[in-house]
Design goal:
single chain; alpha+beta; Alpha-Beta Plaits; 4-stranded antiparallel sheet
Length: about 140
């Protein structure tokens, strides 16, 4: 069993897509170990995106993720990291297949509605940021 982090980004919250996206994870059979609605501060966002700090788009990532409320989910299941990544689709919604979350719901690369940890190690690091008191 693995636990992974999923973030429903500000555009997903603004467009009221939370129940649609959460429902997909429920129907897939994931166990919800944690869920939080929060507004990220800049320091937390920079910690989350630390691996991109030297890239030219770092500031845009931080600005966007702090632009409105997000929903943080801790999802548990067999192969959770890879399964969630498959369900999300490619980073660019225009390249995402129909049936994926981004392929069906996202409108553009800069606002691609969802984040999922890209490895078990990333999931552990990211879960500690969003659920510092632990999981259910």
């Amino acid at each position: 069993m693995e636990t992974t982090l999923v973030l429903l980004k500000p555009d997903a919250v603004r467009r009221q897509l939370m129940s649609e996206i959460i429902g997909r994870f429920e129907r897939r059979g994931f166990t919800f170990r944690g869920m939080r609605l929060l507004q990220l501060d800049r320091a937390t966002a920079e910690k989350h995106y630390a691996e991109h700090a030297e890239r030219p788009f770092f500031g845009e990532l931080v600005d966007f993720i702090t632009s409105g409320p997000i929903v943080a989910l801790a999802l548990e299941g067999n192969g959770a990291v890879a399964t969630v990544r498959d369900m999300m689709g490619k980073t660019n919604p225009l390249d995402s297949a129909p049936g994926t979350i981004r392929g069906d719901l996202a409108l553009e690369l800069a606002e691609n509605i969802i984040h999922g940890s890209d490895s078990v190690e990333s999931a552990e690091r990211e879960l500690a940021i969003y659920f510092p008191d632990g999981l259910l």
